[in-house]
Amino acid sequence: MVPLSLVIPSCLFAQDPNSGYDSTYVLDYTHILTARLYTSTKVNSFTFSDNTTGSELVYRPNNRVNLGFGASYRAFTLNIGIGFKFLNRDDAAKGTTQYFDAQGNMFGRKWVTNLFFQSYKGYYIDGRSKDSLGWDVQTDLPYRGDIRQSNFGFSSLHVFNNERFSYRAAFNQDAWQLRSAGSWLLGGYLTFYDIRSDSSLVPAALVDLFDTTLQFRSGSFLDLGVMGGYAHTFVISGHWFITGSLALGVGPTFYSKQLDSPENGGGTDDRRAAGLHGQGRLALGRNGPATCIALSYNNENVVYAMGDGEDFGWNVGNFRINLAHRFGVRVKQVDKVFDKIGL
Predict the structure, then answer these.
(1) 286: closest CA among 241, 235, 333, 331?
(2) Quick one: average pLDDT of 158-174?
(3) For the CA atoms of the chain, what is the radius of gyration?
(4) Domain residue spans in the chain?
(5) Backbone angles phi, psi at 238, to 5 degrees
(6) 8-41 exposure pattern, b = at least 16 Cβ within 10 A, e = fewer
(7) Measuring CA to CA, which residue among 178, 142, 152 is closest to residue 44?
(8) How confident is the prediction for the chain on average, in pLDDT?
(9) How confident is the model at residue 17 (pLDDT cuts 50, 70, 90)?
(10) In 3-state terms, what secondary structure has residue 301?
(11) What are the CA-CA distances from residue 144 to residues 6, 88, 118, 135, 197 (Å)?
(12) How far, CA to CA in Å, does 172 sit from each of 75, 217, 321?
């Protein structure tokens, strides 16, 4: 599997060499070539929670650690990662996962948008042993190869203080935040989530711990809503930085699930309920005029209220370590192409 990620700005390249930023706060380097080496892993899991009994059930895929390289120019970014085998030797413990995972981030000056599409097959249960479930599987952890999951969606937020605060400085390394600044955020989200399995997603040994509303074998969930929050970068000694961003949203959820419990009689359950959406970002590192090293984490969490104290939720995201260098050069051939198409 060779993951690709593409970063495209929501506002295209401007002729202003600092792209509209206040140069006493942010220096923009999208007009010169930035190259990076990185290591990353994707985030994908789903969780059943019964607050009445205090029980939780967490499924995770066997995610891969990737090494990659990439480049940014005129605010466009392309990254290519490869999951080398010497970094991923835990199939015997967690089982195998087949997946396609495409995540894109649009770090514009005024808008920041997450786009994602994931398709996964094969999950293990985190935090429980196969002996406690009575499972006879060859992996060290309880593993189910019959679970198939796919999701796609987006979230988008407007950055109000967009002249003095830059997401790109922390998460894309082609800008430099010189002074501490923050911004309020406001936007919305739309997601679709689909999960399928051959039998109930709650194992038979755990049915007494989870309400029958959570005992289903498949389901499709559509949710949308408004979201708002705040982001801030703390700059220390002009170079070291910590960036945190949190946004919360709420809206309706429309879902249909295939029940699989003697108590609920099987069949299909179609409902409308409340859905919660959370988006978190965190980055820290050292930036400068030529080189940036940064650790970053992006995560989207969605939770559906399934009953009186029963929730089903999932998340998507990634963790990365980046080493980027700006070469201070322009690529004339690329400039000519972009100029012709008006970018």
Answers:
(1) 241
(2) 95
(3) 22
(4) 4-340
(5) 80, -15
(6) bbbeebbeeebbebeeebbbbbbbbbbebebebb
(7) 152
(8) 89
(9) low
(10) strand
(11) 32, 19, 18, 10, 9
(12) 9, 40, 11
In the block, residue with structure tokens 């409340």: 274
* CATH class of the 4-340 domain in this structure: mainly beta
Please state the rounded mean pLDDT for residues 190-208. 94
CA–CA dist 310, 127 (Å, integer): 19
* pTM as predicted: 0.87
- Inter-residue contact 115 to 154 (CB < 8 Å): yes
Query: For the residues of 103-118, what is the DSSP string, one character each?
Result: EEEEE-SSEEEEEEEE
Q: Count Cβ atoms within 10 A of the Cβ of residue 66 and give its class: 0-12 exposed, 13-18 middle, 19 or more buried.
A: buried
Token output for 52: 């009445």
Tokens describing residue 68? 């990659």
- 268 exposed, middle or buried (CB, 10 Å; 0-12, 13-18, 19+)? exposed
Evaluate if residue 342 carries a pLDDT over 90. Answer: no
Q: Hey, CA dihedral for 211, 215, 102, 122, is it positive or negative? A: positive
Residues 264-275, mean pLDDT to the nearest whole number: 77
Alpha helical stretches, state H, 27-114: 91-94
pLDDT tens across 249-259, in order? 999 999 999 88
Tell me the mean pLDDT in the region 321-329.
92
Percentage of the residues of the chain whose pLDDT score is greater than 70: 92
304 backbone dihedrals φ, ψ, rounded to 5°? -110, 130
Looking at residue 340, what is its pLDDT?
Answer: 72
Nearest of 78, 74, 85, 66 to residue 33 by alpha carbon: 74
Residues found in the chain? 343
Which of 75, 9, 2 has its CA nearest to residue 42? 2
- Token pair belonging to 67: 């090494």
Distance CA 269, CA 260 (A): 11
Could you give the CA distance from residue 73 to residue 336 in angstroms, rounded to a whole number?
Answer: 13
